[in-house]
Amino acid sequence: MWTSSRTHLRRLEAAWHQPAARSPHLPLVARYYDLVQHEPAYHRLPDQTWEDLNGDLLFNLLDATVSPVGQQCLYHRLRSPLTDEAPLHEFDTAANLLAQQSEVRGHALLALNQLTAHEAYYLTDLFSGEPLPTLPGARFAPLLVLGLLATLLGGFWLPVLWVGTLAFALTNAVFHFWQLQRITNCVRPLLQLGRLRRAGQALQRAALPLRPLQPLAAPLSRLRAIMWQVTFLQVQDNLLVLSLVKMLLLLDVLVYARCRVAVQQQAPAIRTVFEAVGYVDCALAVASFRQRHATCVPHFGPAADGIQLQAGYHPLVLGCVPNDLTLAGPGVLLTGSNMAGKTTFMRTLGVNALLAQTIATCPATAYRAPFCRVLTSLSLADSLPTGKSYYLVEAETMRQLLLACDAAPSSYLLLLDELFKGTNTQERIAANKAVLAYLQPRSWVVAATHDGELGALLQSYFVEYHFCETVTAEDWYFDYRLKAGPLTTRNAIRLLARLHYLAQVVAAAQTLSAMLATRAHASSAQATTPEEGGSVVDSIKGDEKLLG
């Protein structure tokens, strides 16, 4: 049904202001990122970190794009943090322009709306470096056409050759229909190339003051020759005259062969237009996100200033309580019970660092930090297919982080949740202390733990913060506020009582907990000289001195 451009624009504007939730085809959305992730870059977000930061959900929240091209470029942008302030400033300017000037935004929305077909996900095939598929037997097509023409013309002098003409005509017809479906499938991304070119032309005609659109004239002109060939493959006539000529002279096969060569030659031009169109769509999506959420523009400073987060919150957590943090010099050791907010806060910090270096937008009141690579270990699991236990997965993950920090010291933000919890308490504390003490001088580290002993062991490397809950006789609740210092209360067993555990189970747990606490207190109160004994912490520190 025909609708006016004004009505159509109103619908696009409404969708931009409040985009509907959609389920993207993530394997298709990731095609562009998968294609270019092996190219040199400052950082590519590893799969584990992407999962720990709920990357797919974060992408869905940000995805107010119009086209599949925009989706693919947004996904790539979110997983490819930058280390240069200039392109981030340009992107911020583009998002502000599209947010504040409705006329400019309208031109962009209408241009991108030409590129909404599902087949547009496959445009990346045209500049992947791999040629389009060849048609089996295509090298014989010129010979079959020459044979047909030769026997047709020769028949005027020797009519018996027209028998050969008939044979060639039948052969060409069979060959044509044998290749027809293959050509149709191969041409699908080429058909979207025409729409990509029209979208690029519309953005160029709108004269949007965006840097990626400025060099589009030459690439768009280079695509014109390919478009003529693709148009010829699409043309059909009602009288079937052209279709008959195409069939007998195998024109579709021959033109497709030329298209293959042209696409390979013009792959850089295709990619330039693809990325320019995707850039505008990404800026539109970020402008939409900014008008739906409280955000700030990040500021980048020297490493000596550390990381400063003010009123940072997680955009995926409804009603998330904002928190502040300054991370400079020592690392941060987080303590607190489960559900108190430790992991959510670490994810908040990671998301702010990631979005700052990808879309120049932070869900916070203020964010200032040096450029850094974010790596996490927040939600590991054992691997049944490879037969790896939980502890082995933990150990391998931490080894990779150690190697990364050795290779590029002072450039990583590490978010670590309860390291080595797949082993016993004594070895867990020892391994945690050794690993965290090694990492802290080489990176910015925020680590969460339930082992209170680590605070004393790492007091020269880390400052302690905690989250806590309040448990009363009638209720229990969390305030999700980050507080300075170590956790001084223990409410886990009281929480079991509030969850209506059996009274004898709660009583037994409380009795044993009190007994263990008394033993620990008595041990720490003993004589402090090495001959008289000492606390566990003092013993470990003494062993470290003996071992150098």
Automatic annotation (TrEMBL):
The chain crosses the membrane at residues 143-170. Keywords: ATP-binding, DNA-binding, Membrane, Nucleotide-binding, Transmembrane, Transmembrane helix. InterPro entries: DNA_mismatch_repair_MutS_C (IPR000432), DNA_mismatch_repair_MutS_sf (IPR036187), MutS (IPR045076), P-loop_NTPase (IPR027417). Residues 329-514 form the DNA mismatch repair proteins mutS family domain. It comes from the Bacteria. This is DNA mismatch repair proteins mutS family domain-containing protein. It comes from Hymenobacter tibetensis. The lineage of its organism: Bacteria, Pseudomonadati, Bacteroidota, Cytophagia, Cytophagales.
